[in-house]
Amino acid sequence: MTHLWTSEALVAAMDGRPIGTLPDGISGISIDSRSLQPGDAFFAIKGEAMDGHDFATSAIKAGAGVLVVAEGKLPSLGRLTAPMIVVEDVLVALEKLGVASRARSEAKIIAVTGSAGKTTTKEALRHVLSAVGKVHASAQSFNNHWGVPLTLARMPVDCDYAVFEIGMNHPDEIRPLVKMVRPQVAIITMIAAAHLGFFKNLDEIAKAKAEIFEGIEPDGAAILNRDDTRWKLLDKMAHAAGVEHVFGFGENARSTFKLTKCELHADHSDITVKIGGHDISARVGAPGRHMVQNILAVLGAAHLVGADLDKVALALADLSAERGRGKRHVLRHPKGPITLIDESYNANPASMEAAMALLNATPVSGEGRRIAVLGDMLELGEHSAKLHAALAELIVGTETRTVFLGGPEMRALAEILPDEITTEYRGGAEDLKPVLFAALRPGDVVMVKSSKGIGFSKLVDALLGKFPAESATNKQA
Q1: 3 state SS of 452
Q2: pLDDT tens digits for 297-319?
Q3: Are residues 262 and 126 in the same domain?
């Protein structure tokens, strides 16, 4: 069996103290006893809400090969007889292991950040690069102070490519993480009004995202959105950080990775992109203009890491949207099908605009309507009421004429939507559920969009529970 890490390498990387007879090595790394696989090392990280040391017994029962625990917690672990590696601080030990993992890797490393589209871009890179080599990438949205070192530590020594998502909602969060990742290529998808509660303006958000430039390897590259209003600022900051190769993607005439043709359809897009003097044509299996923009960055990154672009372009046809990020379901209503678009994972003004465009591009059938089910956009601070109210203009400009709104911040929008838009407002997802269920009819297209913390994913789950989806259509998006 091939080990992810030998126990000897684990102890050395983390400056740990072994207790008991350690296994030859471990097959994986876990910080959650519920998802731990037999043979994994269990890192007992102390989080804000829970302490991993409290779950050490559960980890042993689940088959952990070794426990990584803090020196100060040893007395509270009592008579545990499992093999252990004792360290001063478990999170710091995980960071050290991540750094050691990066040092031993010969993979081409790509890092992704941005106000919207991070996870979608990361997953698209995982998908297309899998057509040309062995790929390691962040699970879910593991993009913070524990998610990034965990993803690094899990990186197999023999992978050809690795893709890391790096997020932030405060300054100085990306900087230490990207210095661990040390990418050859870094992507900033876009700058938009996300986390404005922690920043004065979009320039400040751009400056925080620009911290990613500080970790790019010598002779590495930055890929920036040439159509973004903050392009000049980011370009300037990339060069100031010592990045010699800065490339743009978009429709802008001066883009290095330039979109020259784009046909948007309900369940896919057909595009042509000029890269390195060649025209690359591709069908993108996941729909939406925002998806096309992300794919330009994906193709650019694939080109820069030397991947076979013909194989990469072919792989785009099989791309599908993730749960909460545009995944489609056809619900079996007793009187006929209803299309559900699940955008419930995250929301800010930019992604709200993209989601409404996606809804607008999806055809209804028969007497069906386009229905937007919108929940609060979080972390917008003092700008929140204004930015929620501004969605009225966006909605009026589409063919959506039925809107269900939930959450305290959405009241600002509910109060100003014109009479031509049929509007139902409730305090939250639970209060909205019966009203929405009663209103649905065959042929409708329903799009659910909100920030994760509002819990609108429960509406999606409830719809899927009441009207089981036809799985054959799931792959369309």
Answers
A1: helix
A2: 999 999 999 999 999 999 999 98
A3: yes
